[in-house]
Write a structure and sequence with these properties.
GO terms for molecular function: mRNA binding. With 501 residues, the protein is mainly α. Helix content is 51%, strand content 1%. A hairpin with a 5-residue loop joins strand 1 and strand 2. Helix 11 runs parallel beside helix 14 and helix 14 packs parallel to helix 17. The termini are far apart.
Length: 501
């Protein structure tokens, strides 16, 4: 029998459990009589005389589950172990988080000894449960399941495996244990690429009291989370499920420092959380806090590819009275915003939503700079938009500012668009005065063959009537030979002759 040495769990001289590579039968220890000294003695006899009353381990109550797949060592017997790989036998009970089962008492591997004490497989990152070690538990198919990672423990909290409880805990007890482990680690999980998704789902299933505990862990870090590639999604979920009081705390946290909210809005990640926040803002106090934090950086936000979205959201969701200070800042920086690729779009929306004196202030700022805006690659769109609104008195004011410059603008790539818009939307009176100004210019024939001026002549022909149109037709006929030798003149002449048919 000594030639068939296999291993099991026995006790050494200190009454401490020792882990050996397992097979079918346990090894005899030197403290007992070997079979060569007493051939008639069996291992069963040895174990029957073995006393474990002096074991230093504090065993849990003996309400062990019979028939369990765990290999369970009790003071009186050893239950067969059929659920562990690599022949490892280890202590298990219905209470896996008994004070005895702590990382201070254990440190295990699959094989071997260290100083004749059991070695517990250690992880690089072991979650703690009130100071206890995270257990390694067997699967029903006999394979050893590795210690769950962060996603695993959140999965258990969410009720994995259809809510089954392989460890023998009740649903409430298991939920409490998972939640206790979640506490203190929420910020770490929120900034992890994979765990943040599971955390979002976990937050949906929390009770009001549980969510408040998580909220307290995150509220002081909300400004950093909002610009985090993964944390911003957690903040968005917080905003969706938090109470009005908690929402006010988030708003106050974002607005308490100068330009803090503006910096968040300039971030591609932060703007998502801010937009979600603005959708949930309901009280006047919350709106005032948000708008007061945004006003100092309104001009910067208007020109930013991310930040402009928050201004557009404020214009759509809040009243003109709420947005008054915001629009005043935009009006003061009108030219700077209008000549920006993103800003020109924002400025057009500001004009649409402004009311009363605030709107007039915006109009006056545009009229004042119309000469430069009309020939700007982006500013010309603002002038065209203003003309298309057909606000009483605006077209006349713009016409006064541009008087004597229409011929120059007609030959400009961007200014020609403004002149065409004048001819189409300013009314017959104003369009006639513009056409006459063009005809009185000694170089008017140049417009017939100009890359941009020929489009102005087309619009003038469409908008003119009576003697003004006759003068335009006469101009084309007198210069038809020159037009036929020019690419742009040829197209204009073809269009004119087709309209005459």
């Amino acid at each position: 029998m000594s030639s068939q040495r296999s291993s099991s769990s026995v006790f050494d001289n200190d009454q401490s459990p020792t882990l050996l590579t397992s097979s079918q039968q346990p090894l005899a220890m030197p403290r007992f009589l070997s079979q060569t000294q007493n051939p008639g003695q069996t291992l069963e006899d040895v174990f029957s005389r073995l006393s474990v009353s002096a074991s230093p381990f504090n065993y849990p109550p003996s309400d062990f589950s019979a028939g369990s797949s765990y290999g369970v060592k009790t003071p009186s017997k050893i239950l067969p172990c059929n659920g562990w790989g690599h022949g490892v036998t280890t202590l298990q009970s219905s209470n896996l988080w008994h004070p005895a089962f702590t990382s201070n008492n254990y440190s295990y591997y699959d094989d071997g000894f260290v100083d004749s004490k059991p070695l517990v497989r250690q992880r690089e990152k072991t979650p703690t449960f009130g100071g206890g070690a995270f257990p390694v538990f067997p699967l029903s198919n006999g394979m050893q399941q590795k210690t769950p990672d962060d996603a695993g423990f959140l999965y258990g909290f969410l009720g994995g495996n259809n809510g089954s409880n392989n460890l023998g805990f009740s649903g409430n007890e298991r939920r409490l244990r998972w939640f206790n482990d979640l506490r203190g680690r929420v910020l770490l999980l929120a900034t992890d690429q994979h765990e943040c998704r599971t955390l979002q789902e976990t937050m949906r299933k929390l009770t009001r009291e549980e969510f408040y505990i998580i909220f307290l862990e995150l509220i002081n870090h909300v400004t950093d989370l909002m610009v985090d590639p993964f944390g911003n999604y957690v903040v968005q979920r917080m905003v969706e499920i938090c109470t009005e009081e908690q929402l006010s705390q988030i708003v106050l946290s974002l607005a308490q420092c100068n330009f803090q909210l503006v910096r968040i809005c300039l971030s591609a990640h932060g703007i998502r959380g801010v937009e979600k926040l603005l959708e949930r803002v309901t009280t006047q106090e919350q709106r005032d806090l948000v708008l007061s934090a945004l006003c100092p950086g309104a001009a910067i936000l208007a020109k930013d590819v991310n930040g402009h979205r928050v201004l557009l959201h404020c214009l759509k969701q809040f009243s003109g009275e709420d947005n008054e200070n915001l629009l005043n800042v935009v009006a003061n920086k009108c030219f700077e915003i209008a000549t920006d690729k993103t800003g020109c779009v924002v400025l057009q929306q500001c004009i649409n939503h402004a009311q009363g004196e605030t709107k007039q202030k915006l109009l006056d700022a545009i009229i004042l700079h119309v000469s430069l805006l009309a020939e700007d690659c982006y500013g010309n769109y603002v002038v065209q938009h203003l003309l298309s609104l057909k606000v009483p008195g605006v077209a006349e004011s713009l016409l006064i500012q541009l008087k004597g410059r229409f011929f120059y603008l007609a030959c400009n790539k961007y200014g020609s668009n403004v002149v065409e818009r004048f001819l189409q939307d300013s009314g017959e009176k104003h369009s006639t005065s513009i056409v006459l100004e063009l005809l009185h210019n000694p170089n008017v024939a140049m417009l017939l063959v100009d890359p941009y001026g020929n489009y102005v002549i087309k619009s003038a022909l469409s908008a003119s009537k009576g003697h003004v149109r006759n003068r335009l037709e006469r101009l084309i006929k007198l210069n038809s030979l020159i037009m036929r030798s020019n690419l742009y003149g040829k197209k204009l002449l073809a269009w004119f002759e087709k309209g005459k048919i």
